[in-house]
Predict the structure.
Amino acid sequence: MTKFKSFIAGQWVESSTGEYVENRNPADTRDVIGLFPKGDAADVNRAVESAKKGFDLWKKTPAPARGDVLRRVGDILVRRKDELADLMTREMGKPIAETKGDVQEGIDTAYYAATEGRRLFGHTVPSELRNKWAMSFRRPIGVAGIITPFNFPLAIPTWKIFPALLCGNSVVFKPATDVPHTGHVLVEILLEAGLPPEVVQLVHGPGRVGNAIVNHPDVALVSFTGSTETGSKIGEVCGRTHKRLSLEMGGKNAQIVLNDADLDLALEGVLWGAFGTTGQRCTATSRLIVQEGVHDKFVKMLVDRASKLKLGDGRKKGTDVGPLVNEASRENVERYVQVGKDQGATLALGGKKATAGDLAHGYFYEPTIFTGVTAGSRLEQEEIFGPVLSVIKVKDFTEAFTVNNDVAYGLSSSVYTRDVNIAFQALQHLDNGITYVNAPTIGAEAHLPFGGVKATGNGHREGGWEVYEFFSETKVGYVDYSGALQRAQIDNY
Ligand code: UN1
């Protein structure tokens, strides 16, 4: 069986603990991908020491040259797209079309970063004094700790690592334990593209590795995507130690369908939003808020179509929905289905493990729909991260907006309507970082800011132009060429 290594201090190295974790295919647990190191704080210490040297070198490399490396990364991803999609599906389960999309998001992020190397804009503004120059520009910060989830095993690491590198930081990267193979290949590609070895460090391992990264005094900034629970703990450490921190956490996203909506379009949207990636997206549609005039008809259409979704191995043709990523995730889904039943919601579809035939070897769960879900109930409020959709009936769009907003999270929302006035009101009044009109809650594009409000995040955005602000520090320069002492705010007034 292949034994993989971490990449620390410019070398592929064995686990310092001597311990390894098996990485198995969630669609068929008889298929073992390999053994991955179970690292610890000692690995992180060595990685950070080396990353500090990497930072000294890399910060002096001109940003356009840093961008050139990322352009080559993009080129390699293009060339290896199909192969990567296959290995990603093998380790985390979503269908090949989706892992190809995941790679494409990495490609888009690479090419965006490449060109950002020739922008990284600062400002030049007039000084209030004569013969004095005033400007701002961007500086790299230091060693960036990057901690990423399993659901977008390539795209999310690229959202963080590429802008971090483009801005001149070095990186210590800990991928989720369910998707170490994708992390491994991404680092191989960065090195092949010409990134100096000490600029990137890959430390495989469980939560203790993430913990050591976050607590290390020489890690200057941390970017994390994962659960709100873990994000809160990271936030406490970073608050105490004054580290810059970007958090991307939970969601409880809703699709709203109003009486005047194109129901066929709304149906395609909710099927994709709720059951794509087996519901394991931060942006997944977990709630469907339907206006009473079309409620019964739409629910019937939905249950009918959802019952025909084909569960299976994401690497096989015709599969619509893959497995959950591991047994703990499936048990979590089972617990929430029980909560729904206990709270009196009506189970309209699914509600059990799928174990027929080959499915018995994977972590499959039937697409599940609850109707008659009460706003405010646990099922309606808490993130599930699985293929469970709760339907809530409302009187009008005002009530729909209230239900949408009345949760702790605020990542994405969607409204299906033909009324342009309501569409714009939705953009303005739905408390989310992203609102889609006549499109599902998933489908963010790499060149726009991505993130949410309330318990979803801490105010930062990934993607687009905004992430470059997170990964760099503003510096201001004044040049006085008057040859005399000029006292600001005094001599000129
Ligand atoms: C996530 O769910 O964590 O918008 C990221 C989307 C994808 C990214 C999702 N482009 O669904």
Q: What stands out?
A: The radius of gyration is 24 Å. Residues 13 and 366 are 41 Å apart (CA to CA).
